[in-house]
Amino acid sequence: MRTKGLVASFVLVSLGVIAAGCGAGGSSPVMTTIAEKKVGENLAVAISNPEGKLKNGEQEIGLKFTDGSGNPVEISAASLNFNMPAMGSMAEMNDPATLNTTSTPGEFAGKVKLQMAGEWIAQISYEGEETGKTTMEVTAY
């Protein structure tokens, strides 16, 4: 009787581990917009991450390009750098994000490690259906 209980427990725990592994590896985290800016007449760019706010340290980051109706815009390459200008004796800081394309046109996912909390300038460059550069002020907590 005790053996059947141990086997049943083992099977249930194993199934739970397998289910958790399948869920974690197969999907991307839900991204929440941190900052958004309209660029030109028919292009908007948004920075996002799972928490909806930047933080000091390493984190996932998303960059999304859409038209005036919220539809994806085909952007084939993009870069995102976080810049904090020099202040007093503190030197200028630049923390570039590593971005990868996703299966959705105009959406990029990656990681960034911000050196400290504070006011940053997000510097964005992009090429594709539209090409250009823009900046946004963002705060890391």
Structure description:
With 141 residues, this protein is of the alpha+beta class. It has a single domain, classed as Domain of unknown function DUF4426 (Immunoglobulin-like), CATH 2.60.40. 18% of the residues lie in helices and 49% in strands. The protein has a five-stranded antiparallel sheet with strand order 1-2-3-7-6, with no helix packed on it. Strands 5-4-8-9 form a four-stranded antiparallel sheet, with no helix packed on it. A hairpin with a 5-residue loop joins strand 6 (98-101) and strand 7. The termini are far apart. Residues 5-26 have low confidence and may be disordered.
Low-confidence stretches: 5-26
Helix content: 10-25%
Oligomerization state of this entry?
single chain
Q: What does the largest sheet look like?
A: 5 strands, antiparallel
* SSE topology string: HEEEEEEEEE
Main structural class: alpha+beta
Portion of residues in beta strands equals over 45%
At the fourth level of CATH, the homologous superfamily is Domain of unknown function DUF4426
Radius of gyration, in Å, reads 20 Å
Number of DSSP E strands:
9
> How far is it from the N-terminal to the C-terminal residue, by CA?
55 Å
Mean pLDDT across every amino acid position: 86
Q: What is the CATH domain class?
A: Mainly Beta
CATH architecture: Sandwich
Shape: globular
Question: What is the topology?
Answer:
Elements: H1 2-26, E1 32-38, E2 44-49, E3 57-66, E4 75-84, E5 93-96, E6 98-101, E7 107-114, E8 118-128, E9 132-140
Antiparallel strand pairs: 1-2, 2-3, 3-7, 4-5, 4-8, 6-7, 8-9
What tags apply to this protein structure?
18% helix, Immunoglobulin-like, 49% strand, globular, 141 residues, 5-stranded antiparallel sheet, 4-stranded antiparallel sheet, alpha+beta
